[in-house]
Amino acid sequence: MIRKMPFLLFPICLLFILCSIPVSAQVSHTIHGKVVDAATGLPIAGATVQEKGSASGTATDESGLYKLNVSANSKPVIVFSFVGYQNHEVKVGTSGVANISLEAGTSALNEIVVIAYSSEKKKDITGAVSVVNMDNLSRQPTGLVTEQLQGQASGVTVITSGQPGADPQIRIRGINTFGNNSPLFVVDGTPTQNIADLNVNNIASMQVLKDAGAASIYGSRASNGVIIITTKRGSGKVVVHYDGYYGTQLPKSGNVWNLLNPQEEANLTWIAQKNSGSATPSSPLYGNGATPILPDYITPAGAMAGSPLVDPSLYNVNPNYTDISSYNNFYRITPANKTGTDWYHEVFKQAPMQRQNISVSGGGDKGSYLFSMGYLDQKGSLINTYLKRYTVRSNAQYIVSKHIRIGENLETSISHNPTINDIPTENNFQGTSAIFFTMQISPIIPVHDIKGNYGGVYGTGLNGPNPVAIQRRTANNADVANRLLGNVYADVQFLNDFTFHTSLGGDNYSGARHSFNYPTYENAGNSTVNSFTQSSYSGFNWTWTNTLTYAKQIGQNHHLSAMLGTEAYQSKTESLTGTTQGYLSFDPNYTTLSSGSGVKTNGSGRTMESLSSAFGRIDYSFKDKYLFSGTLRRDGSSKFINYQYGWFPAVSAGWRISQENFMKNYAWITDMKIRGSWGMMGNQLNVNADNGYSTYLLNINSAYYDIAGTNNTNQSGLQVGQNGNPNARWEKDYSTNIGLDATFWNGRFNLTADYYQKDIQGLLYNPAQPGTAGLGNAPFINVAGVKNNGIDMSLTYHQNLSKKLKLDAGLILTTYHNEITQVTDQANYFWTNDQRHYGSNFIRNEVGHAIGSFYGYKITGFWNSAADIATADQAAQKETGNTTAIYQPDEAVGRFRYADLNGDQHITDSDRTFLGNPNPKFSYGLNLRLTYGQFDMSMFFYGVHGNDLWNVTKYWTDFSGYAEAKSKTALYNSWSPTHQNAKVSLPELGQYQSTNGAPNSYYIENGSYLKLKNIEIGYTFPVSLLKNIGIDRFRVYFQATNVFTVTKYSGIDPEVSGSVTDFGVDEGIYPNMRQFLGGISLSF
Amino acid sequence: MKIIFKSLPATALWLIILVVPVSVVMYSCNKSFLKYSPQGSLNEAQIANNEGVNTLLIGVYGVLDGQGNGSAITGSSNWGSTSPDNAIYGSGFGGEAHGVGPVSLVPTNGYLDDKWRADYEGITRANNVLKLVQLAKDMTDAQKANVIAQAKCLRGHYYFDLKKMFNKVPWIDENTTDFYQPNTADIWPYIENDFLAAMNTLPETQPEPGRVNKWAAASYLAKAFLYQHKFDSAKTIFDQVIANGKTTAGIKYGLFAEYEDNFRPEKELESPQAVFPIEMSANVGNGTISSGNQGDILYYPITAPFGCCGGYNPSLDLANSFRTDPNGLPYLTDYNAHALVSDLGIASADPFTPDAGNLDPRVDWTAGRRALPFLDWGLHAGASMVSFGQPVTGPYNDKKLIFWQSTAKQYYDANSWAPGSAINYLVIDFADVLLMAAECEAQLGNVDQAETYVNQIRNRAANPAGWVYQYLDNSNPIAGFSSTPAANYVISPYPAGTFSAGGKQYALDAIYFERKLELSMEGHRFFDLVRWGIADQTLNAYYNYEKPLVQDLNVVPFVPGKNEYFPIPQLQIDQSVVGGKKTLTQNPGY
Predict the structure, then answer these.
(1) A interface mutation test: which of B108, B132, B264, B413 has the most A CBs within 10 A?
(2) Residue A629 to residue A619: CA distance in whole angstroms
(3) Do residue A717 and residue B59 have CB atoms under 8 angstroms apart?
(4) Which residues of B are less than 8 Å from A531 in CB distance?
(5) Which helix (H) or strand (E) holds A134?
(6) Of A134, A130, A82, which Cα lies nearest the Cα of A107?
(7) Closest CA relative to residue A529, chosen from B415, B282, B297
(8) Do B281 and A767 lie within an 8 Å CB cutoff?
(9) Residues of B with CB below 8 A from A772's CB?
(10) Residue range B234-248: mean pLDDT, rounded
């Protein structure tokens, strides 16, 4: 099969070329007419016109006109459908003319919804499916479809970042695993884990499959939910469509970190030194007087103007030094910035963004095509971050005969997306993020020294690198990602009731990046080695799906359909990286891996995995009233050894109660369906490919040793790589769902509501092994468990307020409650995010609590007097019988007092408790749209409620233990004998268990917020005006994004992302920017 | 439709054309399709041979420098001396290792867990060698015996490291399959067995100087006896080591003529002191400093070329200990009454005259002091060079970790924001052996022999060739040194009979003090104080003296009965539940 792939690639290429050839129509018998809105009489463009039971179809043009070729000797039934309208069926007589008025509204239940391996009318669906309103979604100006999904589908929680191209955190119905929680995306039938490169302009529809009834036919890959994406097709006459916008993004203004100015910071230093026992404070910068004096120069530390030390002729800094001895002789002269450097706005600047898209589409009875080109350029407001992407899509379908259709959907993209790491991870807890350092570096440090080289803390006694230098030094780094994602397919209808579908989809991607590491000279600790790193990766995965479907209406009352299918998936990736040191010149044209003179290192990696599956589905409905559906899938994975295969069943049922006679009296209930489902899904995403095997590997860093005593050559050594577990098997994700779909008042009001429970057993997790087992990778074992439950709800409301004024409103509500049911047999919790600066962790995942919960000491107040402490100590001594016992480690006047939760009169590790939960109680999105004649206005609100955030920035800015920038809180709202009702403990030089030396409740904040994410005003020019110049449709619009945020959170943006078990921790994130843009949409 | 499917045979044909080939292809590749082999790694069968086992053995050595798990294992500084009276942990800039001193340690401290895991990684690797060597068919019995003995000696080292820190640790060997073992049994007998087996089997010399030999194992065995106060057994072995011991390179044990040679990479192959060295290396081509004292990355002066961070500075108390009386002998108890003049509180720009009193010359190989030569890097600049704030971290820099400018090209590793270096760390140094032997002799009543050993150490220190001298030219430090000593060095051996005149306790005090001077900042001090049983009074006296002078020592007092040992990492305890019960128990007091 693997070897066959080149042959399969050939047709992909061929189709890609063919697709741009227009398809001409051969007319035999034509029906034509016009489709208009029943209420307004205005033409409806893009409505689907299809002959019932046939593959041939077309769409109306911009004037609502259509032409359809039908079989000459039949009297066809023609179906007219359009999103937001009721379907209309007519028998066309010999006249060949059918002018149709479509009724708005009610059609939500008749909407065609693409589900797993097929499509269905919404009224017939028995699983939980969210249908995304693409119109609302595409209005959000970002390059990522996943980011646009925020607040647009119930059951989906999305946390976005302001960084262009940064994948948002996305969850469907809670958190299902401790590892990869990303849903499965199925793009035109091709499963993929990544849709970051997809051009939203090309997406026709998006559905979210949430429960087992809808998703478990995807079996092993469905556990995190499935998002089905269908791209656009052409139809009708040739239409050229252009969409474009241009805008600007503005960083938050003002003193975003609430920092002190240099004089205030110096004053605080004096206070802290006095509190720490120095009767006569001193500092290299501020002297040793009674009050601190701001110097004229920070290097040489504390120098004043006129000092011989600041004679510019002494200055000696070569920023591009290649020789350490040159560096050792540097003489730096850096002026103090007494008014204070606004570091945040030195790196965050106004930034433009634009998107252009042009498409050509059309079709007839021999096929259809769509060709689209897109360009997106979003500069990040943080300098030298951006997303630039070019996409080309080509979708084509060929109607070979009345029963055979062959087609392809392909999108290729080229992306450039330099990013920064603003989210702390286990191994990179404060990142190298310039954003973090805009909050950390003191404002007295200038951006540049006297000769225009970077200013920094060297020799000042302060700490932190220059964030401008960090970002500027990345200017010549480059990266590129190429991707080809798509499929080729064929449909064959045979006998009357069978359809055979085969699809070969693939994702072929590659990328490369290179970066140069400049030596530094301005920091306290400098990297004196220059190096160049280049890396690349490539991968190819393919999915071959075959389905055979049988559908039959039996008599008036029974409808039966059945499907059988097979699917095979294989993925291979390779990566390569190399670093060379010792460049004689830093000219970006000179640096390659070969042109450096120093140490060269290289490395590479390979992965592969495969899945083999068979699946089936049966759907049965009786009288269009009672609906039943059952699915079963069997999956085999290369990641498992002894238990390679798993079975994933699901059943669901629906009752269209509105069809019952006893409901006929309630005329206002247009339609109502109650549905329920139960099923099981699986997951193996987190398991690494080597999991079943015990391996040894060479490790140049941790296993090599200079056994020969050479001082510069190591001999190679081996260590354990993976501890194998050949008995890992599929985890079992049980899902139960009860739902309601209802339409009231002829579609003015639609409601979909679901309650669900997900119970994940035998969750594959790699718990830390006891230290006694060594450091080899712990294998994944089926040990843990997680439970989720919640309510998803979506409401839409449509009202014609007058003939011209229309209102559409949509409310999305998502809740989830997450609880860990088991961790391992040995432990009932595990930590994430090794926060070293506390010396202990604060994210504890414990049985009975939600994933990612915050943990530490609870502050009850301050120690206001020595007597307070003495009283507490006496109680501790009495309780413990130990005369030297104390109440709390590092207790002192002005520091925090912790709550004694276990009542033993003294504070130990066991007095720590759960302080907060970063999972929101609920999140909601509200779309409002008003149309008045040619004008339209829409607004999108998004909110999150009931979550906590851990604001690490306060650790750095509110406590005085570090010689870095400090906040107004540290100076003006810290404890003192005269200000006991303070926010933070008294300023001190050290950090203590009782201040910021241990995780405590000081960092917890309410993370709830409501944002006006987007507001748009548009005007569509009247058709009468455009006709003369050959334009069908022309709309202009203006938009503002992130208009305002209502929140109590004190940080820069309450939208704090993270990883699955480590989120809501703010260490200086890339905030969402306010955007203003204008755009046009044009077709002819 | 009717046109195409006129008959049943046509239907069958369609099915054959469409469905059958697909099914056949899907089915036929199913079995091999899901087959996978690990990429880029080896399995047991591939390494159960001479080359594989020997490469595994290098991996056991590979943990010695701490890179088994971050920087947690090296003995020189991270865990040994930091808390007690040797050093002040500098946190003017915000230390990375707060709470490392045992007295303010809480069981949840993440570094404890790292340390625990690193030692057990060394043990795991040794156990893997012991398992796989049995399967190797291309090794002679002699080859196997040597590999087994090396693995046992190294395993003994890792267990010793755990034992002295945590006291209660579970024993895991090559036959253990259940890693949830209790930590209730005393593992000293197992440690002794490993060293004994190694001592009896290992050759005296090995082709590579970095390997352990018979005498390394013997010295370690004696050290294990000493820690258990089995002075008799220890003495027996120390006598053999001192009489016959030689390094793996074949050099008879002894002392370098000059004290400082012990800290110079260019001398390590000719070292008579390297009983159990950890071989550090610089610029090995991996672009990191993982093989070059990475655990000490924070302990350099903050100025160029070091860069960071003054995090491990000799205390005032330690510097004062080097004061000598007019006879060149130390003040064993009241040294702080003869404190050195330091530049504490004096800015680098302001004038300062260094201490002019009598000093043990070793002070200037231990503490970087203002206005004295800092190796060949130039005169120590005082406050601006020490750390981020002298009031916090005191006036001195550690000097034993510092590489020389003249040989920096070979031994300084710049592959990080702070230096790595090729300066070896000696787990056991021959000077250490002599002083341990002296302890045994004194404990057994042989104070004259003890005095001989101590004087061997002092006589070497008194060798003027090994002192620090003023530069020929202060503006060009690399040009060399004059013949003017950098300070007023006055040092003598104890006059013969001093120990016997003073009695056993005096002899022990003198030996203990000599250890403090000779081996300061080398990671022994805390564990020495604990095994001597004087950690309580010594450390609390130290805190009382030092606390008013520097701000970094805001520690709670040493609590006897608790702070002798570090807490078992809470994470390890919490992860040790079997059948609802924790298999690991915490040390008393935590």
Answers:
(1) B108
(2) 4
(3) yes
(4) 287
(5) helix A134-137
(6) A82
(7) B415
(8) no
(9) 120, 123, 170, 172, 176, 179-181
(10) 97
A324·B414 Cβ contact <8 A: yes
The sign of the CA dihedral A116, A117, A122, A125 is: negative
- Whether B72 and chain A come into contact, CB under 8 Å, resolves to no
What is the 3 state secondary structure string of A790-816? EEEEEEEEEEECCCCEEEEEEEEEEEC
Please give the DSSP secondary-structure letter assigned to residue A428: B
- At B90-108, the pLDDT tens digits run 433 222 333 344 455 678 7
Nearest CA in chain B to A831: B571
Please tell me the total count of domains within chain B.
1
Look at residue B2 in the predicted model and tell me its pLDDT. 40
Nearest to A178 by CA among A637, A848, A852, A827: A852
Q: How buried is A847 (Cβ within 10 angstroms: 0-12 exposed, 13-18 middle, 19+ buried)?
A: middle
Each residue's pLDDT tens digit, A637-652 = 999 999 999 999 999 9
Q: For residue B224, what are the CA distances in angstroms to B155, B228, B273?
A: 13, 7, 19
Which CATH number is B56's domain given?
Answer: 1.25.40.890
Looking at the domain assignment, is residue B178 inside a domain? yes
Q: Which residues of A touch B559 (CB under 8 A)?
A: 884
The token pair at A817 is 């409650």
Q: Which of A257-271, B183-197, B220-234, B341-355 has the lowest mean pLDDT?
A: B341-355
Point out the residue among A496, A701, A884 whose CB comes nearest to the CB of B290: A701
Using an 8 Å CB-CB cutoff, list chain A residues near B179: 769-770, 772-773
pLDDT in tens, B265-294: 999 999 999 999 999 999 988 888 888 888
Cα B128 to Cα B119: distance, rounded to the nearest angstrom = 14
Q: Give B8 or A419, the one with higher predicted confidence.
A: A419
Give the residue on B whose Cα is nearest the Cα of A841: B110
In sign, the C-alpha dihedral spanning B401, B404, B407, B409 is positive
A290-307 per-position pLDDT tens digit: 999 999 999 888 899 999
Instruction: Say which of A525, A636, A709 has its CB closest to residue B279.
Output: A709
Longest CA pairwise span in chain B (Å): 124
Is residue B491 in a domain?
no
Nearest-CA distance B572 → chain A (Å): 6
Q: Does B190 touch chain A (CB under 8 A)?
A: no
Percent of chain A with pLDDT over 90: 60
Assigned domain for B116 exists? yes
Using DSSP, state whether B449 is helix, strand or coil. helix
Q: What is the pLDDT of residues A64-100, one digit of tens each?
A: 888 887 766 556 778 887 766 777 778 776 667 778 8
**Considering CB atoms only, which of B58, B209, B551 is closest to A715?**
B58
- CA-only gyration radius of chain B, Å: 29
How sure is the predictor about A427, in pLDDT bands with cuts at 50, 70 and 90? Answer: very low
Residue A283 has pLDDT above 90, yes or no: no
First to last CA, chain A: 46
Rg (CA), chain A: 32
Residue B265, min C-alpha distance to chain A (Å): 7
Other CB atoms within 10 Å distance of the CB of residue B338: 15
In a domain, B16, yes or no: yes
* A707 burial level (CB within 10 Å; 0-12, 13-18, 19+): buried
Average pLDDT value for chain A? 88
> What's the domain range around B21?
5-202+565-582
DSSP string over A146-191: HHHTTTTSTTEEEE--SSTTPPPEEEESS---SS--PPEEEETTEE
Mean pLDDT of all residues in chain B?
87
Q: How confident is the model at residue A15 (pLDDT cuts 50, 70, 90)?
A: very low
